[in-house]
Structure formats: structure tokens, C-alpha cells
Amino acid sequence: MARGSAKVKEEKPIEQTLWDAANKLRGKVEPAEYKHVVLSLIFLKYANDKFNEHRENMIANGQESFLEMMPFYTKDNVFYIPESARWNYIMQNAKQPDIAIKIDTALHEIEQKNPALEGALPDNYYSRLHMDPSGLSSLLDLINGLELQVGGDKDVFGKVYEYCLRQFALKEGKGKGEFYTPRTVVALLCELIEPYSGIVYDGACGSGGMFVQSMRFVDEHKGNRLNVSIYGQELTDTTRRLAKMNLAIRGISANLGAEAANTFLNDQHKDLKADFSLENPPFNQKDWRESNQLNDDPRWNGYPTPPTSNANYGWLLNTLSKLGQNGVGVVLLANGALSAGSVGNDEYEIRKRLIENDIVESIIILPRNMFYTTDISVTVWMLNKNKRSRTEKRPDGDVRFRDRSGEVLFMDLRQMGHPYEKKYIEFTEEDRAVVVEKFKSWRFDDYGTDYSDVPEFCYRATKDEIIEKDYSLVPSRYIEFINRDESVGYEETMEKLNVELKDLLIQEEQSKQSLLEVMKGLGYEIKL
Predict the structure, then answer these.
(1) Which residues lie closer than 8 Å to 385 by C-beta, 6 or more apart?
(2) Which of 3.40.120.10, 3.40.50.150, 3.20.20.70, 3.10.290.10 is the CATH number of 183-477?
(3) Taking the CA of residue 251 as centre, how many other CA atoms within 13 Å lie in the half-sphere pointing to its CB?
């Protein structure tokens, strides 16, 4: 380094600065609650920043007499902030022992004044936490220093919000973080199904990431947001609020049902027929219904009722039931679903009929360590109600679909992706481009690139080939492997054996209990 020169300190992005600072305050509330504490305060600051900016513009334009008229804000997609909810008032009282009550009141009044935020903000949340006022005050001081309206970047808050959601999911790790699907996975799914216009559905919407990426896709491809309608459902009330807030800050209207509810037991969109569905439900969900529940549910529509032991095929049939005549849906499932069950088993029969009815369009294996809730490799199931030839109008020109009736495209992406956060994998834009290029060359008539199978990457299988392999959808049974092991088969087999072992242990325990009851009825007291 030349004498007299100084090393320039690299400035961190605003989202990382916030996270690093806020993370130092962890431990003052329960880990599961912390994300709601931080994100709601960031929202409060952001809403106030936008409100103040709009207010200054009104003054500059000689509209001082309209400063307290709500329609002059909402017409420009700016949330109106009542006086007792304004950031200056909050900061003036930040050191007071009742600051939690004041924050709760502020959030309540903002929600009351802005219909788009109905059900999005915490209800009497900070008071119930009994958080140490000094810790809450420190967090307010930290957020007070943030500038969430930066230059020409209109989505600074969106980036901060998304970054924090990811970091919270990373911190909560295995068994937690179900509210968040990694952004690069969602981006790939959107690029594959291309939700330009129509109804988009997610029956396990978490914090709304699928919807955010869908709208991002529309924006990037010069579509019109007004042509897209969002419908979703989420089981957990606090996560549903995260989703509503996540969408509201981006001006995305959505129908998330009347309440947080179980998609299977209390379907909020029974008559919906969507053009697109994107779902990342809980993997291998056990005991998702009682044995006497949902046996005649219309969503099964001629398919066997999915077993109570695992909801994977329940999610597949729920998605299928929500698709219109040309609908396309993607569902993320654990690899065990690819060949679950044997002849006569409900899962086997459902998969067999999905294939015979020509519903499965593509099966895509993702790399391991992409998800924060599990380290296993995960499968993308792409379902399509109409694989035949047709033309679709798009903002950037009409597109003709090639007739792919009787075919399934298998893709193995386990050698793709790049590491981040030491132990996780994510897709780069270049990775996604390779996958999308290959998929479109197979699916579209006039794409310009001819499709061909590639060893260790992709294979176009016919229905007859799949029937010959007893309706297995394990990609390694079709894709040619030359230089590496067919490990997906091993992973799938071990997962299947683990599930079967657990079922046997449960059956053994039930048999013991039955024997004890019988012996007790005969007057014998025994211990097993």
C-alpha cells in the first residue's frame, strides 16, 4: 500500500447492518418471538418514513390544508399514520416504562386506519411479552438510525424484511423456520411456471415468499400486477401476520382467508380454481388428520384418500384440486414420496393414477442443504392439468407449448448451486438459467433450442417407461449416470426404511397395549 493512503472501509448493506446490531439484543425475549418483535418495529419505522416523505411532498406542492386527510395518502399507496403512532412520538417516549403499551397502541391504530393492513400487525403483542423496557428502548434506538427510504431504491424495506426473514430462519434452523422458503428456490419455481397473469395459490404460504417472488417475476418481465390475483392460507396466526405485512409493504393485495387455519381441516378457498400453485408444505407431516376425517373430501376427486401417516400425497391432491383446466402447480416434497408405498397401498395408487392421468409434468431433485429445516435433498413435483399443445398470450409475445402428453421430464440438480453461510447451498442466476433453458427447450415449440437428454442432468421419460419401472418417479432410475453414484436412490431408500421402521414400532406399541387390555379383562395384571 502506498505511503499516506488509507484503507477504505467497505460499507455493509443496510440489511446486514441492522441484523448485526439487532442480533446483539437477542436473549431478551424467546427466540421464536424475536423475529416478530424486530420486524414489526422495522415496519413501524418504514411506514413512518414513507408517511413523512409524502407529507413533505404535499407541503412542497402547497397542500398543507390536506395533511391530516387520509385519502391523500392512501391514493398513493402510502399508509396514513395517526399522531399517536408517529415515530417522533414513539421515540420521545422510548425511555418510558409503558413504551410497550404505546407501541401496541400505535400498531393497532395504524391497522385500524389502513384496511390493507387488516390482520397484519401484532395485536397487543409487546405488552404481553413483558419485555424489559431498557431492551425495547435499545432496539428502538437502533432502528431509529435506519434510513429505509434510500435514493432511488424503492424496495429497501422489502430487502431488509426479506433478509431478516432469512436470517431468522437460519438461526431457528432444523425443526423451525417453516415460515420461509429460500429465495433462490422460489425464484427458480417462478421461472419454470411463469405466473404472468391469473390466480396464484399457496396452501402453505408461510411468510408469503412465493407471492413476493411471483410479483417480482411479473415486474421483471414487464407484466401487469393488476392481472395477478393472490390466494393463500397459513396455519399459524403469527406467521400469517408476517405474510400479510410482507405483502402489504410491497403493495401486493392478497386473500389469505378469513383466519389462520389448517388447509386440510378448514379450507379457506374451497371453490378456487387457480392458474398457478406454489407450495412448500411441511415435509413428511404425520397425523395430519384423524382416521375418520376427510375420507370423502372432494379434493381427492376419484383418487384414494391419502394415509393418515403422511400428508405428502394429501398436499399433492390439494394442489391438483385447486388448479383450473390449464393450471400448473409445483409442490416441494421429501424424496420418499417419489416411490412411497407398494401395490395396493394408497400412496402407490395415487401416484399411479397421477401418472396414468398424465398430470405429472416434471420431477426435479434439488441439492441437499438448501432448506433450513432439513439437510435432506428435496423434490420439486410439477403438476400440469394440460400438457397438450396450446398457445398462450404473454406480455412479451405469444408462446406455443409443445405437446408433451405421455412424457415426464426428470432433472437432477444435486451437482449445482453454490455454498453460503458455511453449510447451506443456494442457486445463482446462472444456475437457474441453465435449468430454465433446458426445461423450456423441452416444453416450448418455438424456443429456439432443441431438447436433448444430458447424462447426470436430465432425461425425458415416456409413460410406458415409468409403468415399466412400476410407477417409480426416482430420477436416478431414468437419468443416465456415468461418473457418480445414484445416491438419490440410496437417500430415498433409507428415508423409506426409516418411515417403515417407525410405523412398525408404533404398531408394536399398539399391540402391547391391546394385549395388556385383554389380559386385564381376564383378571391378569402383567407388565411388558
Answers:
(1) 320, 323, 324, 325, 326, 327, 328, 359
(2) 3.40.50.150
(3) 13
pLDDT at 4: 46
Coil/strand/helix, residue 255: strand
Rounded Cα distance between 166 and 372, Å, is 9
**Side chain identity at 96, as an amino acid letter?**
Q
Look-up: residue for cell 408404533?
Answer: 506
In the DSSP assignment, the letter for residue 479 is: S
H or E element in which residue 276 lies: strand 274-279
As a whole number of angstroms, the distance between CA 58 and CA 274 comes to 41
Torsion of CA 156, 159, 164, 166, to 10 degrees: 180
Say how far apart CA 340 and CA 454 lie, in whole Å: 27
Q: Which amino acid is at 509?
A: E
Contact 448, 455 (CB under 8 A): no
CB atoms within 10 A of CB 211: 28
Residues 491 and 296: their CA atoms lie apart, in Å, by: 34
Looking at residue 45, the DSSP 8-state letter turns out to be: H
Residues 6+ apart with CB under 8 A from 525: 519
Per-residue model confidence as pLDDT tens digits over 177-223: 466 788 899 999 999 999 999 999 999 998 898 999 999 999 988 88
| Residue found under cell 433450442 | 449
Which grid coordinates belong to 447? 424456443
Are the beta carbons of 83 and 105 closer than 8 angstroms?
Answer: no
pLDDT in tens, 48-74: 988 999 999 999 999 999 999 999 998
Residues contacting residue 250 through CB under 8 Å, at least 6 positions apart: 155, 158, 212, 215
81 three-state secondary structure? coil
What pLDDT does 175 receive? 52
| 103 and 90 Cβ atoms separated by less than 8 Å | yes
Supply the angle between the helices 156-172 and 237-248 in degrees, to the nearest 10: 160
Contacts 24+ apart (CB under 8 A), 398-404: 399/444, 399/446, 400/444, 400/445, 400/446, 401/443, 401/444, 401/445, 402/442, 402/443, 402/444, 402/445, 404/361, 404/442, 404/443
Q: Point out the residues of the chain with pLDDT beneath 50.
A: 1-9, 150-153, 176-177, 487-490
Q: Which fold has domain 14-169?
A: Ferritin (1.20.1260)
Amino acid at 282: P
Residue ranges per structural domain of the chain:
14-169, 183-477
Distance from the Cα of residue 395 to its chain's centroid = 26
- Strand stretches in 407-495, DSSP E: 407-412, 418-420, 424-426, 458-462
Close Cβ partners of 426 (under 8 Å, ≥ 6 residues apart): 182, 183, 184, 370, 417, 418, 420
Indicate the pTM of the whole model.
0.83
3-state secondary structure labels for all residues of 84-107: HHCHHHHHHCCCCCCHHHHHHHHH
